[in-house]
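Researcher: Going back to the complex we discussed earlier. I've cleaned up the inputs and rechecked each line, so this should be the final set. Can you rerun the prediction on the complete assembly and write out the structure?
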Amino acid sequence: MRKLSRGRIVALLGTIGVAATLTACGGGSDTAASGGCDGNIDAGAGITVQWHQGAEAEVKAVQQMVKSFNASQSDVKATLKLVPEADYATSLGGQADSDSVPDVVDTDASKAFTYAWSGDLQPITNCVSDEQKAALLPSIVRQGTYANQLWALGMFDSGLAMYTTKSALKKANVRTPSLEEPWTAEEFTAALGEFKKAGYSKPLDLKKNYGQGEYYSYGFAPIVWSSGGNLLSDDYSTADGELNSDAAVKGLTVFQSWFKSGYVGDNTDDNDFLSGRSAVSWVGHWTYNDYKAKFGDDLLVVPLPDFGEGPRTGQGSWQWAVGSNADADAAWKFIEYTLQPEQQKIIATASGAIPAVTAVAEADPKFGPGGDLELYVKQHEEGISVPRPTTPAYNTVSNAFNQAIQDIIDGRDVKESLDDAVKTIDQDIQDNDGYPDPS
Amino acid sequence: MFSLPGLILLGLFLILPFVFAIYLSFTNQKLASPLPVRWVGFDNYHRVLTDGDFWRAFANNLLFAAVVVPVQTGLALWMAILVNKRIRAAKVFRAIFFLPVVVVMTVAAVIWFLLLDPNRGLVNGFLGAITFGAVEPGWLQSTLWAMPAIIIISIWQGAGFQMIILLAGLQDIPQELYEAASIDGATKRQQFFYVTLPQLRNTLIFVITITMILAFRLFDQVWALTRGGPLNSTDTVMVQLVDTGFERKQIAVASAIAVIFFVVVLSLTLIQRIFLKEERS
Amino acid sequence: MSTAAEATTRKARPVRERSWPTYLALTLLAVFFLFPLVMMLASAFKQDAAILPDSNSLKAFIPNPFDGTNFQDAADRADMWILARNSAIISIVTVIAGLAVNSTFGYALARLPFKMSKPLLLGVIALTIIPFQAVAIPLLFLVSELGWRDTLYVQMLPFIASPLFTYLFYSFFLAIPTEIEEAARIDGCGPVRTFWQVVLPLAKPAFATVGILQFLQIWGEYLWPVLVTTDSSVRPLPVGIAVFYTQPPISWGDIMAYATLTVVPMIVVFILFQRWFIQSVARSGLKG
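Model: Rerun complete. Updated structure for the full complex:
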């Protein structure tokens, strides 16, 4: 009972403090866009590094990295904190709200900018040297930049394409597409029919089992881009006339037709492609090792279909950012460490993703010329890949868009679904005064 | 003095936050936003009340309550009568019916997710086998069947609890009333309608009130399994609130939903109290 | 059903009720309430690869091929023992404090005459309507300002006082005859001693009921811990299951093992205290 009453007194005192700062809550008191590196690591700096607890191999690699980082130098001591991926956004929101974002925090692609905008991150523009920047894949820098500042850097980039097998193409008598001559949307739809006739009960695996969430935005926004639509206008001020444009409606209507024709499996066991129910699997780089192990040389990686304006694909992955309360130099020392060649190899092996450092990527036979995944690197280098909008509005854009995708999958009218998404997005942009850049 | 600890804690962790929510509902406060907070009057209320999704969610709550309150209460009453009989193993059955109540919602959600999978789930495996594949609903993935699925899960988890309360009520009914009734030649059915139900009146009113309030609070199952989908078919007011407040970071709008919810459920409870007045001795 | 039932009554001895329809009904109900849990248990002891292929037939109930490693995996991946310890501390402390606070408040409402007692009671009843989600956001602000994130007590304090449990105690105390307390007062006991020595012993069933209900509520809490904790050294069990959701192929064996380990303590507690609990509901205010 004694403990309880002490808690009460603390609580009472706290209430008085809260009443005084009511309007300052929600991170509003943070100063935005200040900070960054000053070249000095504060003495005895300890940093917290937060990673999303998703793929086990990645978690092990990051654990290993933190350990070897601590062993490699004595200026900065890093402590790792793992937060389950399923609740990651909610947890990070809670941290931002209480001004307790960790020193080094990984964020899912453009979702970082919500927190850059709210003042919970600090820019790392002046932490990175020009040579360091030049050594990275251009898509990595593009993905981390917002409001003329660099806020985040990924250890790796993602790759999005379709997997199929040579034997499936042969069996259904479908031609092999390439980046120069991708399947058109009509051609692809017809091919799905051929695969079905050839005995593939659910010819297309769209990883429907991942469910509504960031993957739907990442995986299916390329349809909008390739159709000639966009998620947002180029100045990020509205989604109207872009996301609900005729072009976007047309592209996503084709997408919906695959479900209506019964081409897409539920993939509940995550096994539609491996078990031969599907001939084509539309998914990111992370399934490569499993697929390769099963199909060996029969496996093919082909670009997403062209919906009219040339093939487009996604890019970007989880990336490191620096919390506003951190000693940026100490935080950067850790991020820099993860971009060293040995660490790059470790994380690339664990994640199956494309290493952020171009030289490391090209040295890997998988990604190099003639390699299975050369397509990914080419997509990033040739501008086929498009970053998800680098704006604080992205969080809303993604939620609204993946809701629309879910609705379209569930059979709702495409135009109606997209109009709803546009309404949500534009309302949010308006509510936030157009998300003015942090000063 | 006795009420002081309770008052202070309720004040701090329930009343103060709720008053704060009322305040927020008149502002444009958002999570993670550096913009200055403004007073916006009734804008948020206007936005919520003109939002089709909110009304859809509200209608779903009504539908859920309209099915769950009578069905679950009826089932629980039936179960209570069954386990109240003087038969062997009554206690074992009583325990079995109560077991799902102690199952944590996150766990119940994963189990039912697997059971209700349209293609590989046990439920459709069973339905398919007895109907030769004629009846295999899409359950959580179908706009038509998602709400029935949520209802079944809720009943599975909640009926045992109501059963225990009703059982306690049944055991309080004096045995002489039944004896007198059977001497008067009342059938089992007549005994149920003229002895059991009137005697259980207060208990039933309590159970119905609680079930109704819980029905309007429906959140956990939906959040864990469908997040309101597909196509808003399982959306509820609480799911809307959490989605608006945390996913969309519009906490002012979410607070307006909270206030509206409170007013609506309070009115419903009052109306119900007027119509079903408890008999207090 | 009634004609078939009547046919049997003719033969049956008049004293005994015909029992086979009752048993049939009970058995069918038992299947409905039990099969999900049996499936969970069987899957927890099964190889991952076999769970989905078996899941739409009776094979779902047979742990074959048997695999005991799921439990170890589940425990390792989710820091399960730490989370279990946290859950136990949070639940037990909250329930003990909750019983103290809610019973005294309920007693005050039922007995101690003071001016505000009636409106206070109505206020408590109105408060039962407010769902936790409705105050979660302001509460998050409050505890953030106080710097209470990532602690065990931030998961306890908001749940100690409860209008519903206060109301249950209130109805229970209302039903106790006042004569007993009068007698104590005449013997020279003050309100504190009367409560402690006279009322409390009578109120054991109410304490048991409310204690179990509150325990269930706290043990299953999900939204709040996700919002206010990120550190597994303070997170509770239900949150840990999220660790398994993320990367397909999902290991259903691990999930079911974790689920089993989350549920089994509750089932054991319930079975141990079953009789006590059910009898206590009968004597507490719960039945209205």
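Model: Worth noting: Confidence is low (pLDDT under 50) at residues 1-33 of chain A.
Researcher: Good, that matches what I expected from the previous run.
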